[in-house]
Amino acid sequence: MKAGIVGLPNVGKSTLFNCLSNAKAQSANFPFCTIEPNIGVVNVPDTRLEKLEELVNPERVLPATVEIVDIAGLVKGASKGEGLGNQFLGNIRECNAIIHVLRCFDNDNIVHVDGNVNPIRDKETIDIELQLKDLDTVEKRLDKVKKAAKTGNKEAQLEAALLERIHACLMQGKSARIIEAQNQDEEELLEAFQLITSKPVLYVCNVDEDAAVNGNAYVEQVKELVKDEDAEVIVLAVGTEADITELETYEERQMFLEDMGLSEPGVSKLIRSAYKLLDLQTYFTAGVKEVRAWTIKVGDTAPQAAGVIHSDFEKGFIRAEVIAYDDFVSYGSEAKVKEAGKLRVEGKEYIVKDGDVMHFRFNV
Ligand code: GDP
């Protein structure tokens, strides 16, 4: 599961990516690693992990992580192959969610590709490229499916009807994510099409330091523009936060943030939001050797959760012993939770909840 950072050139994408990659400075246990120059694995900040560490006092602590991809090079005309357009659009297709960075800061020294700062126009420029790419995908598919539909194939007819709806939506300059599946079949088809504009999105308004807390007029314009999109808008002073990650000590960084009026780096919030956008959640294992946050999809069952640790755990799954995070914290230890009768034994059908502290029993 990964989130891709998109936006026009010079809006602050690589600064944001570098800032995220420097997030290692905040939590030392799981080094950020760059898989490829533009792909990084970032820790998901989670205060629950600190709390569990306090209670269990383990040898090490491992946070959950999320993969972030810097997708540079998206420009006007990308869908027609301008620049390295098609390659970059291919990279976006492989992502599961999109972080769309919008330039909301003035600075005459930093050239804007379209002459002046205008996040509304910028968003549209990027959206249009993505929509054109999807239009291409939809039209190709429609060509094939229509032929099958003509022969009376019911499935093909259903698919063609959905494709026509998406086509009409894209032609109006709207993204495919506004299309609502009307039944299970449509839902599966929408998933299978892998359209870029149907991926979930969040917007990052990149502002100057003085607008980090309350935003500015550009941010207001963006919020107004996307108010019907059901998408989160995050205000972030990317440049300043990048500077902060360069500071040596935690105390220095914290002081700088407090001066700005922030209690934690804005990028921490962004990482958590991206994690949520990917429909991910966390369960914990809490032993004296290791306290660890594991990542699963919302809705995963106990065996699926066990499978994240090891595929054998999933295959041989017998049962899970589960403690709700709040119970763990209020009783203070696993033993006390047991005493209080708050440890639950759950079977194969159990849908794991965010924050569950789990033990798995399995056959080998
Ligand atoms: P990209 O092309 O989208 O990856 O943009 P970069 O991250 O390379 O940023 C372009 C320029 O804008 C660089 O010189 C950054 O230092 C600068 N920059 C990025 N974020 C900010 C910001 O929040 N405020 C200001 N003033 N400059 C920024």
Automatic annotation (TrEMBL):
<feature type="domain" description="TGS">
    <location>
        <begin position="279"/>
        <end position="362"/>
    </location>
</feature>
<dbReference type="InterPro" id="IPR023192">
    <property type="entry name" value="TGS-like_dom_sf"/>
</dbReference>
<keyword id="KW-0460">Magnesium</keyword>
<protein>
    <recommendedName>
        <fullName>Ribosome-binding ATPase YchF</fullName>
    </recommendedName>
</protein>
<dbReference type="InterPro" id="IPR013029">
    <property type="entry name" value="YchF_C"/>
</dbReference>
<dbReference type="InterPro" id="IPR004095">
    <property type="entry name" value="TGS"/>
</dbReference>
<feature type="domain" description="OBG-type G">
    <location>
        <begin position="1"/>
        <end position="256"/>
    </location>
</feature>
<dbReference type="GO" id="GO:0016887">
    <property type="term" value="F:ATP hydrolysis activity"/>
</dbReference>
<dbReference type="InterPro" id="IPR006073">
    <property type="entry name" value="GTP-bd"/>
</dbReference>
<dbReference type="GO" id="GO:0046872">
    <property type="term" value="F:metal ion binding"/>
</dbReference>
<keyword id="KW-0175">Coiled coil</keyword>
<keyword id="KW-0479">Metal-binding</keyword>
<feature type="coiled-coil region">
    <location>
        <begin position="128"/>
        <end position="155"/>
    </location>
</feature>
<dbReference type="InterPro" id="IPR004396">
    <property type="entry name" value="ATPase_YchF/OLA1"/>
</dbReference>
<dbReference type="GO" id="GO:0005524">
    <property type="term" value="F:ATP binding"/>
</dbReference>
<dbReference type="InterPro" id="IPR031167">
    <property type="entry name" value="G_OBG"/>
</dbReference>
<keyword id="KW-0547">Nucleotide-binding</keyword>
<comment type="similarity">
    <text>Belongs to the TRAFAC class OBG-HflX-like GTPase superfamily. OBG GTPase family. YchF/OLA1 subfamily.</text>
</comment>
<dbReference type="InterPro" id="IPR041706">
    <property type="entry name" value="YchF_N"/>
</dbReference>
<dbReference type="Pfam" id="PF01926">
    <property type="entry name" value="MMR_HSR1"/>
</dbReference>
<keyword id="KW-0067">ATP-binding</keyword>
<dbReference type="InterPro" id="IPR012676">
    <property type="entry name" value="TGS-like"/>
</dbReference>
<dbReference type="GO" id="GO:0005525">
    <property type="term" value="F:GTP binding"/>
</dbReference>
<comment type="function">
    <text>ATPase that binds to both the 70S ribosome and the 50S ribosomal subunit in a nucleotide-independent manner.</text>
</comment>
<dbReference type="GO" id="GO:0043023">
    <property type="term" value="F:ribosomal large subunit binding"/>
</dbReference>
<dbReference type="GO" id="GO:0005737">
    <property type="term" value="C:cytoplasm"/>
</dbReference>
<dbReference type="InterPro" id="IPR012675">
    <property type="entry name" value="Beta-grasp_dom_sf"/>
</dbReference>
<feature type="binding site">
    <location>
        <begin position="10"/>
        <end position="15"/>
    </location>
    <ligand>
        <name>ATP</name>
    </ligand>
</feature>
<dbReference type="Pfam" id="PF06071">
    <property type="entry name" value="YchF-GTPase_C"/>
</dbReference>
<dbReference type="InterPro" id="IPR027417">
    <property type="entry name" value="P-loop_NTPase"/>
</dbReference>
